[in-house]
C-alpha cells in the first residue's frame, strides 16, 4: 500500500477497524474517557506509523443488532459519539487532513441506536451499508440491495432499502454531503422459489 501511494500521490487509504465479526469489545473501548483515549491512541499510532490517511470505524452495532456474543450497553449510543469525537481530536492533533469515517447501518432498528446528527459532526463521511437488506434471514425473497421497497413489504420490512435509509439519515439532520451510499460487489441467491412475480416476495428454501 505504501508503494502504491508513492506511485499515486493522490490515493488515500484508510484503515478500517471492526466489522461484523470484530465488534465484540467496542462497547468496552468506548465506555470511559480513559478507555476511549487509550483505544484511539493505539489506532492513531498505527495510522501514523504505517502511512494511512485516516480511519474508518465499523462498529456493528452500538446498543445491539450485531452478533449475540458482542458486549453491548444502552449507553453505547452516547459513547459512540464521544468515541468518534476522541478520534477526531487525536487525528487533528497529529496533523491536518486525516480522514475519519464510519460504516453505518441501513436498517431502522440499528439506525435508531446512533446519536444523529451529533455523531456525524466529527466525521468526513458516513459509509451507508445499504446491502444485505435481504437474505436467508428474511421472511420472503427480496433484493439484497434494494433501492425501493417491494409492494408486498410493510412495516420495518418496507424500510429495508437504500432510499428509506438515506432519507432517515437526512431527516435526522445529517448533512447530505456526508452520506456515501454503499453498494455490494457480490450477490445472494434464493433456492426453490416459484416463478410468481419473477420470484420476488416469495417463499424459499
Which spans have pLDDT < 50 for at least 5 consecutive residues? Answer: none
Q: Tell me, what's the shape? A: globular
Helix content: 25-40%
Distance between the termini: 43 Å
Determine the number of helices (DSSP H or I, runs of at least 4 residues). 6
Largest sheet: 5 strands, parallel
Order of helices and strands: HEHHEHEHEHE
Instruction: Count all strands and give the number.
Output: 5
What's the Cα radius of gyration?
A: 19 Å
Class from secondary-structure proportions: alpha/beta
Quote the average pLDDT: 96
Structural account:
There is one protein chain. The protein has 205 residues and is of the alpha/beta class. 29% of the residues lie in helices and 13% in strands. A 5-stranded parallel beta sheet has the order 1-2-3-4-5. The longest helix has 19 residues, at 76-94. The chain is globular, with a radius of gyration of 19 Å.
Write the layout of secondary structure elements.
Layout: H1 2-7, E1 14-19, H2 26-29, H3 33-49, E2 54-59, H4 76-94, E3 99-105, H5 108-111, E4 125-129, H6 162-171, E5 179-181
Parallel strand pairs: 1-2, 2-3, 3-4, 4-5
Keywords:
13% strand, globular
Could you give a short description of this structure?
The chain is an alpha/beta fold.
Amino acid at each position: 500500500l505504501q508503494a502504491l501511494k508513492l506511485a499515486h500521490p493522490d490515493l488515500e487509504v484508510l484503515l478500517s477497524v471492526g466489522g461484523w465479526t470484530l465488534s465484540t469489545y467496542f462497547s468496552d473501548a468506548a465506555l470511559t474517557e480513559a478507555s476511549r483515549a487509550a483505544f484511539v491512541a493505539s489506532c492513531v499510532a498505527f495510522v501514523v506509523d504505517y502511512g494511512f490517511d485516516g480511519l474508518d470505524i465499523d462498529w456493528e452495532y452500538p446498543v445491539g443488532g450485531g452478533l449475540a456474543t458482542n458486549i453491548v450497553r444502552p449507553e453505547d449510543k452516547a459513547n459512540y459519539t464521544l468515541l468518534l469525537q476522541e478520534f477526531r481530536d487525536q487525528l487533528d492533533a497529529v496533523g491536518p487532513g486525516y480522514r475519519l469515517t464510519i460504516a453505518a447501518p441501513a436498517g431502522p432498528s440499528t439506525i435508531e441506536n446512533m446519536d444523529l446528527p451529533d455523531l456525524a459532526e466529527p466525521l468526513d463521511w458516513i459509509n451507508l451499508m445499504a446491502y444485505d437488506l435481504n437474505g436467508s434471514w428474511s421472511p420472503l425473497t427480496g433484493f439484497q440491495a434494494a433501492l425501493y421497497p417491494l409492494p408486498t413489504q410493510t412495516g420495518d420490512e418496507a424500510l429495508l432499502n437504500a432510499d428509506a435509509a438515506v432519507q432517515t439519515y437526512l431527516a435526522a439532520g445529517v448533512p447530505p454531503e456526508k452520506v456515501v451510499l454503499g453498494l455490494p460487489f457480490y450477490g445472494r441467491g434464493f433456492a426453490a422459489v416459484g416463478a410468481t412475480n419473477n420470484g420476488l416476495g416469495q417463499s424459499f428454501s
